[in-house]
Amino acid sequence: MTALLTIIVLVFITVAIWQMVKIFDLANANNENSQVATDKDNRVNGYLMLGFLAFIYIITIVCVVKWGDLPLMSNSASAHGPQIDNLMIISMVLIFVVQTITQFLLHYFAFKYKGEKGKKALFYADNDKLEFIWTIIPVIVLAGLIIYGLFTWTEIMNVNEDDDPLVVELYAQQFNWKARYGGADNTLGKANVRLIDIDKANILGLDESDPNAQDDVITSELHLPVGKPVLFKMRSQDVLHSAYMPHFRAQMNCVPGMITQFGFTPTVTTAEMRQTPQMLEKVARINRIRTDKSKKLTAKGEEALDRYEFDYLLLCNKICGKSHYNMQMKIIVESQEDYDAWIKEQKVFKNSLVQN
Amino acid sequence: MSAHADTHDHDDHGHHHKETFVTKYIFSQDHKMIAKQYLITGTIMGVVGVIMSLMIRMQIAWPEEPNVIFEALLGKWAPDGVMDADIYLALVTIHGTIMVFFVLTAGLSGTFSNLLIPLQIGARDMASGFLNMVSYWMFFLSSVIMIISLFVAAGPAAAGWTIYPPLSALPMAQGGSGMGMTLWLVSMAIFIASSLLGSLNYIVTVINLRTKGMSMTRLPLTIWAFFVTAIIGVVSFPVLLSAALLLIMDRSFGTSFFLSDIFLQGEVLHYQGGSPVLFEHLFWFLGHPEVYIVILPAMGLVSEIIATNSRKPIFGYRAMVAAILAIAFLSTIVWGHHMFISGMNPFLGSVFTFTTLLIAIPSAIKAFNWITTLWKGNLQMNPATLFSIGLVSTFITGGLTGIILGDSALDINVHDTYFVVAHFHLVMGISALYGMFAGIYHWFPKMFGRMLNKNLGYIHFWVTAICAYGVFFPMHFIGMAGLPRRYYTNSNFPLFDDLSNVNVIITIFAIIGGAFQLVFLWNFFYSIFYGKKTVQNPWKSNTLEWTAPIKHIHGNWEGDIPHVHRWPYDYSKPGHDEDFVPQNVPLKDGEEELQH
């Protein structure tokens, strides 16, 4: 409703502006080239250019101050996270500097050299030296960034199998996630969607005759022991999905017909993350918002919202259909002991099958 | 070319063949009329695309609230005014498709390539007026089919404008992947054919029909941009066509190019051996060059407008041409940066990071050269000038974040978040739109013989400029906070609750910005009929189109085609009284042409 009213108001404003412009036009109706900028237009728009420069700077500052603490840039929960965060911060600073300078030059020149009748511009068509300078500077800066970026990328994407990583399968389907652990042998059994047998509750299509599959554990919550490298093997049964774990700076698509992988080492347990000052503040802020919303909801006779408590999440980040917006799985990072205790409670594959 | 010379020999204007209403306004083979047809069709599609974007924004800002606009426009897809999740994805998909292809490819490049190539190189018309006409009508047909697809019972295509299979291939996976997707594919196949016919025509015309004296180094940068854009189009669009055809085969004839091992709704499908990643490669082999197909013509228009209105030569003409060529070449070998985390080999990711970041170099050269063109100029602040400066501004802001997204390591965490949405809307969406607006304000007199109202132009620019930043600048931050794009609502993620007020602010800017496009539409349609009549060369420009008569005639010039004696950027040249010297003015005694 608000939106409609806004639009109606704007339409009226438009009509009003049109009428004003018509009056302006009547004033210089006898000038044959009246729709070309005059000195006055140049002056007014020149000053507006300066104003716009100020607007760009202000919106930058407002965004950084007000929302600069929202980004995931310094609170990663994985071993490789700080590398990405550092590179991100360096790139951001660089962008910020270049943005500030070039926007200044652009808008300041537009203001400074606004046209005046009788003035003649400088006939200046080329300067090889100048052009060489601003070709070579980006070349050097980008070379640095490329090299830094490529080292980081290679390090992240190369999973070292010698570290004896915990192997976990992330299994995607419209619209939920399952995790599969290799069990005592830390080896995932063979699987293919063709082997899915819903009647026997073999929902991930594991090969029932594969000895490695017998002790596999399938869960709908992802538990990870802190400090231990994890190698994720991603699979999808229907369409493309993407396993996005923003706090761990991790993401990989799940592609039907192939197995993709991504590895990282979680470094901060869920409990520790909840206690960081940054997170305490964020959660408090979110809960203030939720309390306000709840008040409105209860006034309408609807249920209030639950209090929010922080948890790591796995989100689907590739458009996958109607309920794409709600395809998530909780991730819990805990101590090795807690993890061992939890995994022991879970049913292994061979016991989870329904026998006829 | 002799046959051509015969049919277009208009030097003898005594017996001009009579045109009927149909041959003049509908099945016209005149490039100027075809340009207007492209522009008006593109504008109408643009209105549809913008209305969709506003509905998307309103849904994101106020996800729980019923909205009368939804109820009125979406009908059964918004029972009681609450938008359905499927139609949200459909809106996202069709908005993207319409804006990228129908507005910014056909509406922008189609309009200005058609209008300016013959007029600026000094040709009577396109190499083939007939193919040009066919090209427009195929575009029109594809637009109609795309619009019809909105009214299909199971909903329009909803798999994102990238239509990745299997989602787009299986009607069981999503309602929109049935008839809606079929129509999408048919529409796009026709669109691609139209675009290819247009591009071939542009290439042939620029190579063969330049007037005497118009060497390649005397071409205005607009023509260079259109020419190179057409080449990129011819190289990359057929690949998308093949991807679309293979997808049609998978959908309708049971092949498995892109599908394998799928279990859906309780049954195993027969597909085996295909790979969705193959589709991604084919799609982005066009998809990435496509963003340059969109932005290069805008850059060409803006180079011309900035030089004319600064009353200065474009700075570094040679470097500008080299940058266009470099961008065109690099654009065809960077597509993999859309696929860093698609499951392709990480080593390929390294290669694509390298090539992608290289594109920043020619882009930087262009930006610096535009800024230097302003330096010590005598800047005429026409609405077209403002939009051109606006393009440089948004191109810098949006382009810089490309350094982050092109870096595979950083892409991991911002891929498919709102950071990407902010980046590409600024660098190709808003920038190209500004280029298109700049072009319309500048060449409107050439198209319609009348001027657009400048004061409305100023209002249009300043509100649009503020709203564009208001919408897309904060969006980077919610992206960096990890918010995925294409979510119907974020209310299932309390984690993102503190972003909801940012989303409301963005939406308010979007509504204001969208509403003020009405100022432009009004100005545009009103001025076609009642605008102030133009003078011969309102912007005191050097290029040939301003030597052609205001009233459109078939064949562009009465009598001989003007010959060209100099490059198009002799603005404020010492030794001349006026601050411009049109290209058809011979060199004075002792005057030297700038060696560029």
What would you note in describing this structure?
The complex is a heterodimer of chains A (356) and B (596). With 356 residues, chain A is α+β, with helices and mostly antiparallel strands. Chain A is built from 8 helices and 10 strands. In chain A, the strands form 2 sheets. Chain A has a 5-stranded mixed beta sheet with strand order 3-2-1-5-8, with no helix packed on it. In chain A, strands 4-10-9-6-7 form a 5-stranded mixed beta sheet, with helices on one face. In chain A, strand 6 (241-245) and strand 7 form a beta hairpin. In chain A, helix 3 packs antiparallel against helix 4 (128-157). The longest helix of chain A is centred in the first third of the chain and has 32 residues, at 81-112. The radius of gyration of chain A is 30 Å and the shape is elongated. Chain B has a single domain (32-257, 275-547), classed as Cytochrome c oxidase-like, subunit I domain (Cytochrome C Oxidase, Chain A). Helix content of chain B is 61%, strand content 1%. Chain B has 19 helices and 2 strands. The two termini of chain B are 30 Å apart. At the A-B interface, helix 1, helix 2, helix 3, helix 4 and strand 7 of A face helix 5, strand 1, helix 9, helix 10 and helix 11 of B.
